[in-house]
Design a protein that fits this description.
The structure is a homodimer of 291-residue chains. The first copy, chain A, is α+β, with helices and mostly antiparallel strands. Helix content of chain A is 41%, strand content 27%. In chain A, the strands form 2 sheets. Chain A has a 7-stranded antiparallel beta sheet with strand order 1-2-3-4-5-6-9. Chain A has a two-stranded antiparallel sheet with strand order 7-8. In chain A, strand 5 (127-136) and strand 6 (140-149) form a beta hairpin. At the A-B interface, helix 6 and strand 10 of A face helix 6 and strand 10 of B.
Amino acid sequence: MSENWDDKKTQATQWFRDLRDNICAEFEKIETELESEKPVGKFERKPWSRDENEEPNHSGSILKGGGEISLMRGRVFEKVGVNISIVHGNFAPEFAEKIPGAAESKGEFWAAGISLVAHMQSPLVPTVHMNTRMIVTSKGWFGGGADLTPMIENVNDTKDFHAALKACCDKHDPAYYPEYKEWCDKYFYLPHRDEQRGVGGIFYDYKEDDWEKDFTFTKDVGTTFLEIYPQLVRRHMHKTWTDEQRETQLIKRGRYVEYNLLYDRGTQFGLKTGGNTEAILMSMPPEVKWP
Amino acid sequence: MSENWDDKKTQATQWFRDLRDNICAEFEKIETELESEKPVGKFERKPWSRDENEEPNHSGSILKGGGEISLMRGRVFEKVGVNISIVHGNFAPEFAEKIPGAAESKGEFWAAGISLVAHMQSPLVPTVHMNTRMIVTSKGWFGGGADLTPMIENVNDTKDFHAALKACCDKHDPAYYPEYKEWCDKYFYLPHRDEQRGVGGIFYDYKEDDWEKDFTFTKDVGTTFLEIYPQLVRRHMHKTWTDEQRETQLIKRGRYVEYNLLYDRGTQFGLKTGGNTEAILMSMPPEVKWP
């Protein structure tokens, strides 16, 4: 590796940790703002480590490092997982060839990131996904994004979510938003249903223009998420909903499951290379119906 | 194709249809044997046809033919789907290369079969899957099997289910049962959980020893299923269950979803080649939890 990545890895790791802390604090605050018979949710944090792994796993890869799963089951957030992970190791050749620069690093990689999926009690509050990550092989880059999946579509939510992401992108480069919005629409698509997973957002990957610039943008994506999503939650969480709306929500969640297990690259790659199943599948909704 | 397959295709198709009728009749009979406030289930039958498809779909394959989805939501059977399909067409090269004899037939194929998944109201009644099929490319063969997924394990159910399948296999060849049991165990395995999907059964494929012999065996697998599974249902369906057992069932069903969407060859291949999504995903459980 031609650059010295150590300091960059440290900075990015610290950011993902701080962002996780800020998101968890804000979501716990939201829990206290709703009157309900259900108990107020608090995040439970579960660290995991694979540092004892010296031998290749069933995929032929060696995975070391670890992470922290933060999971909350509450009165507003039915199930929300916020994972951070800092992993490294060696991918087996069949996996390394799918990762930029990993052939040149002989499969060696380092990756850190934050990943979040929120499934809400109220069908009026949209489901959301946010993930940003830094990966280093023989090169280093950022990737990530945020996207919204309303259970019952709401034009204003969609507009405001996209406006926030566009403003975030435009601060850095006016070319970002149209490109990353389109990437998101293409990525979160279920061909077997000919349906989008939700109403989109932004998605970017292999971003290696300039480390400082890309890191600043990645931080902004996280901060923007932390500003806009709580607004959408507070907008709807006090409203009552019908059994029919709940049913619609449970069925729509089935599409989320189908997408994640059939198509999501991170899920498929993670499970195939022997990643942490509990962390990867924290994205599964708490309750789902295929009636 | 060196053999004349027309009469064989007709015979197999008729068998799959007859078996479907007999299974549906037996399951509807079971519905009337339980006292419950819920309405007695009746199968709803939905035919589908793709005969208008002359052009390749998104996968580059041409799929023609059709089938019938029979779906029942009842007081014993929470959701049971029994599909038959008789399809033909041309697989795109990337799919054809995965199917024996399809390179030689230039992608041309014919397939008929029956596929069944039953998700039960009671967590004390095991989930079951049964599928048999005949496929013709430049060669022709049978495949299929049946396997049991208890929500709460029951040693006698497992023993009796396997004993019935073993007796069925042994009538044809004493080598079948050990080979097909092992194939089933290997197939219905979730590597990311290091768990079996259920307690197994038998699985066989590419069976082209002798058409008459293989057809007779395939018919026997269907008949054996129709004898043994209703016994297991009637054994447990009158018993009451606890909320905790229901919860266990809903979580166990999540593993079924994970298996079918992440690993099941038929599901993945079917969805990727543009098969009928509604028919393929009738296997999804009616209600599932990932708490």
